[in-house]
Specification:
Blueprint: E1 2-3, E2 9-10, E3 14-16, E4 21-28, H1 35-53, E5 59-66, E6 73-75, H2 85-93, H3 104-119, E7 125-132, E8 153-160, H4 167-176, E9 184-187, H5 196-206, E10 211-213, E11 232-240, H6 247-263, E12 275-283, E13 289-296, H7 299-307, H8 318-330, E14 345-352, H9 361-370, E15 373-380, H10 386-392, E16 400-403, H11 412-422
Parallel strand pairs: 4-5, 4-7, 7-8, 8-9, 11-12, 11-14, 14-15, 15-16
Antiparallel strand pairs: 1-2, 3-10, 5-6, 12-13
Keywords: Collagen, Signal
Pfam family, one: VWA
Function: Collagen VI acts as a cell-binding protein.
Length: 423
């Protein structure tokens, strides 16, 4: 920020996106993709809107998953039930691998005729992203490879696998992308879809030309729109208090928790059917867990508890921490009755590097599944245990936020994405 003569702070120039965008994702759900790779693709689909929405005003996202003829399934751009990132993620989560043939040309025609043509907004730029792992069925009409071309749709194709080393298959991708090779991406593995670098690259491709705004206004640190107002969310933070973290990083992490509490729209009472409540558990070794504060809507209670928090500076056992959180935060430690609201999404947010003892981890993961926990993993630093992170994320790579260090927690680019994700 710049200091003005009157002593006030002025925000630096900001990059904003003022155009509307309708984004259609076409996902290959054929047999050759495989169940595991299909789940990875779903992780990419869930993750992409949270990145784009953080910098792009008025974005809508639709999905077509396709296999053989007549098996197309869609999440429409104008589906009234999709009114938040969370509801979009839930809709994607319900998509199941079809495991049939590959009718890509027909899927492109279906996407235009049934979804884009009927629901595109007059002033919106339409983007399409086609994700496939191989050649289409020869019985399909190859004339429809260009079904989206010449219709004011910017088409991006992502070809995954060795098959696209063959010239004729590469040409297919270019044809789908309306003969714009710069809009063709190739990768060897499906796991490359969820790499932060690739998601950032796709965000750049899907965002219209930015407008540079340099307002002479006081800096505003709060989000422009109140968050978590459309539905109830109970969020349990599990904060790693091990010696690996270090006291300075530990304080950065609990400051992040407090800032999240200040940004969210908190519930008005424990019986409020909307808005958010928050709890925090600090964990160390197998027998070291500290409920800093239980599920609450009281910001004063949260701030007072965080002001008195003491860093455990211990070893780390995340499995025991999860079990303790379920038995003492989600459920009442006295009678075992559920304290988390039954109509609320129950979210566990792990702030960790994933370096932890493995005891009780499998039991803990099963307990999360039993309680219908929606996990989010904030993995900080370069020395992380990805196997543990994936277990904490219940196998969903989209739920894992990889950041280089604890300073990233206070960066607006990460903070806004995180808030949109959990809401």
């Amino acid at each position: 920020p710049t200091v003005m003569e009157n002593g006030s702070l002025v925000c630096p120039c900001a990059v904003t996106f003022t155009n509307q965008a309708d984004i259609m994702l076409l996902v290959d759900s054929s047999t050759s993709v495989g169940s595991k790779n299909f789940e990875t693709t779903k992780s990419f689909v869930k993750r992409l809107p949270s990145n784009v929405d953080a910098s792009l005003a008025g974005a809508r996202v639709g999905v077509v998953q396709y296999s053989h003829e007549g098996t197309f399934e869609a999440i429409k751009l104008d589906d009234e039930r999709i009114n938040s990132l969370s509801s979009f993620k839930e809709a994607v989560k319900r998509l199941e691998w079809i495991a049939g043939g590959t009718w890509t040309p027909s899927a492109l025609q279906f996407a235009y005729n049934k979804l884009i043509k009927e629901s595109r907004r007059e002033k919106a730029q339409v983007f399409a992203v086609v994700i496939t792992d191989g050649r289409y069925d020869p019985r399909d009409d190859d004339k429809n490879l260009g079904a989206l071309c010449g219709r004011d749709v910017l088409v991006n194709t992502i070809g995954i696998g060795d098959i696209f080393d063959q010239p004729e298959q590469s040409e297919t991708l270019v044809s789908i992308a309306c003969n714009e090779p710069q809009r063709v991406q190739k990768m060897r593995l499906f796991s490359d879809l969820v790499a932060e670098e690739f998601i950032d690259k796709m965000e750049d491709m899907l965002c219209p030309d930015p407008q540079i705004v340099c307002p002479e206004l006081p800096c505003q640190t709060e989000l422009a729109v109140a968050q978590c107002t459309q539905r109830p969310v109970d969020i349990v933070f599990l904060l790693d208090g091990s010696e690996r973290i270090g006291e300075q990083n530990f304080h950065r992490a609990h400051n992040f928790v407090e800032e999240v509490a200040r940004q969210l729209t908190l519930a008005r009472s424990n019986n409020d059917n909307m808005n958010a409540r928050i709890a925090l558990l600090q964990y160390g070794s197998e027998r070291e867990q500290d409920v800093v504060f239980p599920l609450t809507y009281n910001l004063t209670e949260i701030s007072n508890a965080l002001a008195q928090i003491k860093y455990l500076d211990s070893s780390s056992n995340i499995g025991s921490a999860i079990i303790h959180a379920i038995n003492n935060i989600v459920l009442s430690p006295g009678n075992g009755q559920r304290v988390a609201r039954r109509n609320a999404e129950l979210s566990f947010v792990f702030i960790t590097d994933g370096i932890t003892g493995s005891k009780n981890l499998e039991e803990a993961v099963n307990s999360m599944k039993k309680q219908d926990v929606m996990p989010t993993v904030v993995a900080l630093g370069s020395d992380v245990d990805m196997d543990v992170l994936l277990k904490l994320g219940l196998g969903d790579r989209a739920a894992i936020f990889r950041e280089k260090d604890y300073d990233s927690l206070s960066q607006p680019s990460f903070f806004d994405r995180f808030i949109r994700w959990i809401c």
